[in-house]
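pls ignore typos typing on phone
calcium ion + seq
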Amino acid sequence: MPRSTLGPFAALLAAASLAALAGCGGGGAPQAKEVAAAGARACPRIADTPVRLAGGTFDMGEEDVYDEEGPVRTTTVGGFWIDPHEVTNRQFAAFVKAAHYVTVAENPVDAKQFNVPADQIPPDMLKPGSAVFTPPDFPSNRYTDWWKYVPGANWKKPYGPGGPDAVPNEPVVHLAWDDMVAYAQWAGGRIPTEAEWEYAASAGQRSKNIQPEEANSWQGAFPNYNAETDGFKGVAPVGCYKPNANGLYDMVGNVWEVTSDFFRPGHDPKDSKDPKGPDEGSAYDPFSPDTPSRTVKGGSYLCAPNYCQRYRPASRQGRDPGMGTSNVGFRLVYDRPPAAG
Ligand SMILES: [Ca+2]
Ligand SMILES: [Ca+2]
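k done
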């Protein structure tokens, strides 16, 4: 399949790579010893069986943390089944094997997608790859200091060719929107709406009552110091942290999870019955204003008190649909009982 259109996130990474080529950056994909998880927690194997949730009404959003999360809206969703954990590398590998699927990050890059003359594109950006978190050793609040486009990074080699293979029980990452939809079609599910996801994640609690260390997040001064007091420096296998009241693991933290809603800052108060978000033409992501981003939820192992207090069910951001990163994954919902097995 052709590679999807790369959005502004890729273009900004290209700009960062240009800076790197000019001598301002440096460093490659982390080596295996640098990315090994601390692993202080017991991580029981979690069943894949989806959880049935009856429909209901809840208060969606928050108004006292980030502007894009409000206003709080009384929201009703119908019932559905949902994966108990983020889709894992083991599950995605079964799909790839059965469908002979090749992900966007493994496909050739079309130079025309950058909308700049070819000689202005860093050569590495024209190689298949993905964006890998590569922490700087100095304080920074510029994301181009910690995101690096790594040729050869993809779901099978999440840190790039020089790093370890994907761990079967960790969430699959480095997928574009099209990859997730292809997996969903194969698995008989679909990507949840933001409302379904937040209803499942909040499980009857207000979002603000979730404590950061109940989820795989970042303790310390992001991006250059992680105290790892929650047991993992980076991504964790699914199921290492206690489930929420719905029996769902890692809804908050570990990896951000993609929903089917296009992103706009804030919630439309009038759209309260099984909302599906704005239409594509109304999507607006201040981070990527020229691309209709999808909404991601729940924060990741990179969310820290000093940078990204998004280890909560109400948290939301836009995400470039054309390119994966090492901190974004997904899980599925189902409109009927999934087949056994
Ligand atoms: Ca952590
Ligand atoms: Ca998650």
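The pocket of calcium ion (ligand 2) is lined by residues 86, 250-251, 253-255, 257, 298 (CB under 6 Å). The two ends are 29 Å apart (CA to CA). more later
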